[in-house]
Design goal:
Blueprint: E1 3-4, E2 9-12, E3 15-16, E4 23-24, E5 32-35, H1 41-54, H2 74-84, H3 109-123, H4 127-134, H5 139-152
Antiparallel strand pairs: 1-2, 2-5, 3-4
C-alpha cells in the first residue's frame, strides 16, 4: 500500500524494528513521498503481479518482498543472491577469503540505499532534492554523498541503466 506504481512513488512513513519487527516512525519522524526511478518501475510492476498471484487475498496483501523483519541474516542472504546472480566484484565480498579486513565491510541492505543516493548525486540531481528523497535531517549528511559522487563521477558510466529484460519476465518494458 506504500508503493504507488501508477504514480511511480513510494510513501516512506515507517520502519520496522530489526529485533522485534514492531513498526515505528522513521528515524527523523517525518514522512515523505519518493519518486521511483523510471528504469525500476517495470521490475516493481512484475514483482507486484507475481506477489498478487501468490497471495491468498491479492487485494489485501500484495507485498513486493516477503521477509521476516527480525531475520538478522538478511545481508548474508543478499550477498548470496548477488553471488548466484554472477556478481563477482571483490569489493562487495571482502569476506570471501575468510574474515573481512578491518578496512572493508561486506555489503548490506543499507549500502544499497547509500548507493542510490550517491548515484543521484553522480547524475547531477539537485542537492536539496537528494536531501529530501534520502530523508536527511541536515544538509551536511547529504554533502557526504555529493563529495563521494564527485570522486566517482569520472568514467562512472550510465546512472540507473535499464534493467536486463530477463529480470522482467513477461512484464512489458516501456
Amino acid at each position: 500500500e506504500d508503493i504507488d506504481l501508477d504514480r511511480g512513488v513510494v510513501l516512506v512513513h515507517r520502519s520496522a524494528n530489526r529485533v522485534t519487527g514492531e513498526l515505528k516512525a522513521t528515524k527523523t519522524s517525518t514522512s515523505r513521498r519518493v519518486p521511483i526511478e523510471r528504469e525500476l518501475l517495470p521490475l516493481l510492476r512484475a514483482m507486484h503481479e507475481e506477489a498478487r498471484g501468490d497471495s491468498p487475498n491479492p487485494k489485501a496483501d500484495a507485498r513486493l518482498v516477503r521477509v521476516n523483519a527480525v531475520d538478522r541474516k538478511l545481508s548474508r542472504k543478499l550477498r548470496r543472491c548477488l553471488e548466484l546472480a554472477g556478481v563477482t566484484r571483490a569489493e562487495l565480498f571482502p569476506e570471501a577469503n575468510g574474515r573481512a579486513p578491518k578496512t572493508r565491510k561486506p555489503i548490506t541492505f543499507h549500502d544499497l540505499r547509500a548507493t542510490g543516493i550517491t548515484w543521484m548525486a553522480v547524475r547531477g540531481d539537485e542537492p536539496l532534492r537528494i536531501k529530501q528523497r534520502a530523508g536527511h535531517s541536515t544538509f551536511s549528511t547529504t554533502e557526504g554523498y555529493i563529495r563521494e559522487a564527485e570522486n566517482l563521477r569520472e568514467g562512472f558510466g550510465t546512472v540507473f541503466p535499464p534493467l536486463p529484460r530477463a529480470l522482467l519476465g513477461d512484464a512489458e518494458v516501456s
